[in-house]
Amino acid sequence: MTTFKNKVVWITGASSGIGEALALALAQEGARLVLTGRREEELERVKVLTGLPTTDVLVLPLDVTQFEMALPATDKVIRHFQQIDYMIHNAGVSQRSYVRDTDLEVYRRLMDVDFFSTVALTKAILPGMIQQRSGHIVVISSVAGKIGTLMRSGYNAAKHALHGFYDSLRAESYYDNIQVTIVCPGYIKTDISVNALNEKGQKHGKRDENQEKGITAGECAQRILDAVKKEKKEVYIGGFTEVAAVYLKRFWPSLLYKMVRKAAPQ
Ligand SMILES: NC(=O)c1ccc[n+]([C@@H]2O[C@H](COP(=O)([O-])OP(=O)(O)OC[C@H]3O[C@@H](n4cnc5c(N)ncnc54)[C@H](OP(=O)(O)O)[C@@H]3O)[C@@H](O)[C@H]2O)c1
User: Fold this and answer.
1) Ligand 1: does its nearest atom lie under 6 Å from the Cβ of 187?
2) I need a labelling partner for 95 at 20 to 30 A (CA). Which of 29, 88, 132, 212 fits?
3) 153 CB less than 6 Å from ligand 1?
4) Buried b vs exposed e over 117-155: b needs ≥16 C-beta within 10 Å?
5) Atom of ligand 1 nearest to the CA of 210
């Protein structure tokens, strides 16, 4: 089975939540890390928590929606570590607003952070992976990438888009020995709802009950790494309800649509 020992893993959204938990779990396995997010001080905090030798962690502050920075950022990583073995596209922002109320700009923002940023970074790192004839791209989608739910229209759309793009990339990259794993978490106990955008693009600002009752970011990270080691194509990680919903959509979609319609908006 694959091991992360000495592998170079670039994680976006490493300053909190699932990204931070992934950084800590990967450090335990001896990986070398690139930590990206906008908040440099939080990335430095995570770097200290990893306990890794300082040269084994590159703190690389970046707003992933500055697409023109994808190439210079990639160059920095290559200068530091000479290669990139794993890219984990984890940075993301959710939504809490109805379609009828939501400004178009909010949809653009959600697509930029949750979808286009991954495309820009993937295009920047892909030539290096093709040249080294190895690489593994891990995309943190969501159960929201499989099911459309209330007050998440833009978030759902961006996460669904990831599946189309990365299923294509997986097929195209087969003979270059590049793997693609798409991860669909359910409810995970992080600040995702606090940072979610409302109809005007402001922060929702509170922890929703569903996230509060979710599994921990640490457990989610462990299960993500297990799936990556097994080179899974797609994986669902969460409580019974969210994972069952994915199968319900596949096998009994009319019931799922009714349940979504009747769910308490949150
Ligand atoms: N928690 C859940 O229930 C859940 C469920 C399904 C999927 N997910 C997905 O899991 C991923 C991680 O979310 P989380 O739950 O850990 O929430 P979180 O704690 O809010 O983390 C979001 C991360 O994304 C980064 N980020 C946001 N906008 C960015 C930007 N423009 N440039 C660079 N980094 C940016 C944030 O860093 P900075 O603020 O420092 O930029 C932060 O590290 C997301 O893709 C989310 O959609 C979460």
Assistant:
1) yes
2) 88
3) no
4) bbbbbbebbbebbeeeeebbbbbbbbbbbbbbbbbbbbb
5) 3
Domains recognised in the chain with CATH numbers: 8-240 (3.40.50.720)
pLDDT (tens digit per residue) in 208-243:
998 889 999 999 999 999 999 999 999 999 999 999
The catalytic position among 107, 155, 187, 236 is: 155
**pLDDT, tens digit, 9 for 90 and up, residues 11-52:** 999 999 999 999 999 999 999 999 999 999 999 999 999 999
Asked about 174 being catalytic, the answer comes back as: no
Confidence check: pLDDT of 1 > 70: no
Indicate which residue's Cα is closest to atom 25 of ligand 1.
13
The pLDDT, as a whole number, for residue 158 is: 98
Site to substitute for ligand 1 among 190, 215, 224, most atoms within 8 A of C-beta: 190
**Of all helices (H) and strands (E), which one includes residue 107?**
helix 104-111
- CA distance linking residue 29 with residue 163, whole number of Å: 28
Q: Is 182 in the pocket of ligand 1 (CB under 6 A)?
A: no
